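The following record pairs a protein chain with its ligand, iron/sulfur cluster.
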Amino acid sequence: MSGSHPVGSLYLHVPFCARQCGYCDFAISVGRRADAEAWYGAVAQEWRRWREDADVHFTRPLETVYLGGGTPSMLGSDLALRVAEILDFSAGATPSEWTIEVNPESCDDALTRAWASAGVSRVSIGVQSFHEPTLTWMGRLHGSQGAETALTAAKRAGFASWSVDLMFGLPGHIGRDWRADLDRVLRFEPPHLSLYGLSVEEGTPLARRVAWGQVRPAPDERYREEYLYAAERLRAEGYEHYEVSSFAREGHRSRHNQVYWSGRPYLGLGNGAHSFLPPWRHWNERVWPDYRDAWASGTPRPAERECIDGEAAALERLWLDLRRIEGIERARLESAVLERWQASGLAESAGHDRIRLTPNGWLVLDELTVEASHRAATA
Ligand code: SF4
């Protein structure tokens, strides 16, 4: 099922959050306490099931492991050791990159030190902003001081790398100063930053507030201005803008995310997790109690799946290639498209036979992918 390529990357979804942020549409389960033992039990069983599948092979050690959520740090300092036990990271089998996402309100020195000594090599901290009214508006549980405490803890724990998430393109009435937030995060010299624009997702509390006229999303012009300002500022600070949303100091790119973008196989465990075992994309039961109960009773539903081939595969490949700094071969574009993109500053040369999108182009990545797709599908 995964072809001849062994799977070297694993994603584990930890669905627990103490509160739902207004914009969030992830597969989460909200409550003051995480259903920790049930989660360890369910993902251990799912992992065992995959290990017994004769069609799927894994590298040993795994190359990258990523625990995302939800709020993995709600599972506390034990999380890394428990996962290491489930995935059998014994004697030299720790992955080259092992990332765990943290939220500032559940991140301190004790947690980061415990994780670093268990073999975690990277944390990704969901700061989003340092501006108190913004954090309150988002529904986040941390304040600016909590964000700084978490950044300090990540910095001194001795991880090989660490990353910060910030969000831009917020509604104007909140009074958030994007430049001030960038200044503040840069004082901590993060090796990696991910910047995400706020989007209004169907079914979220934010979407309802927008529909009722209580919130007016940021105008396109400010979204664009903030993204372009950050791209320029971070480049001047020595960061490589190596993917639409990702900025890294030399040697600090996310290896795990590059697996997603390069089309290599990965396996996802946990509710709502996706896997790509070419040519198949799988996705697990999304609702945590349903996923939990199915594994607890030994009757998990097979993950749903879709074959990604032909035109769909070509379109996806193009979209993934265009989002990265390496770009695509010029030959995959019609010359009229190529000329238009370059003349309008949407793309630039990336070596004699390649082209890549500029930050201006990344702002309209989806449209450009569709524009280029006719030629790419036949290349
Ligand atoms: S912390 Fe993250 S996963 Fe949890 S509700 Fe907020 S945005 Fe969603």
